[in-house]
Design goal:
Elements: H1 3-7, H2 10-41, H3 45-52, H4 54-77, H5 81-93
Helix pairs in contact: 2-3, 4-5
Organism: Klebsiella pneumoniae IS43
Keywords: Membrane, Transmembrane, Transmembrane helix
Protein name: Hexuronate transporter
């Protein structure tokens, strides 16, 4: 596929757009929060390490739960897989 064909593909944008919107928040967790803890609260590296891993843990848990819920929602609410995935994404955004 040429680059122009990829850019015209709706499936590409269905993946790329959410990633473009989510990456700034993820970058904040990875880079800004440790710096904030150092500059504002005077944490040293050991103290930062005690807390800086938490966003990554909760992101991992969210990924696991986010993959587990759609089939359950299909059974509980009688919706198709796409609708159940949208429900999970909406819950995650709240």
């Amino acid at each position: 596929m040429s680059p122009w064909q990829i850019l015209r593909n709706r499936q590409f944008w269905g993946i790329a757009l959410p990633r473009f919107l989510a990456e700034p928040a993820w970058g904040t967790f990875n880079a800004w929060i440790p710096l904030f803890m150092f500059k504002v609260y005077g944490f040293n590296l050991k103290e930062i390490a005690m807390f800086a891993w938490m966003p990554m843990l909760f992101a991992d848990l969210g990924c696991i739960v986010g993959g587990y819920l759609p089939p359950l929602f299909q059974r509980w609410f009688g919706v198709n897989l796409i609708v159940s995935r949208k429900m999970v994404v909406t819950m995650g955004a709240c």
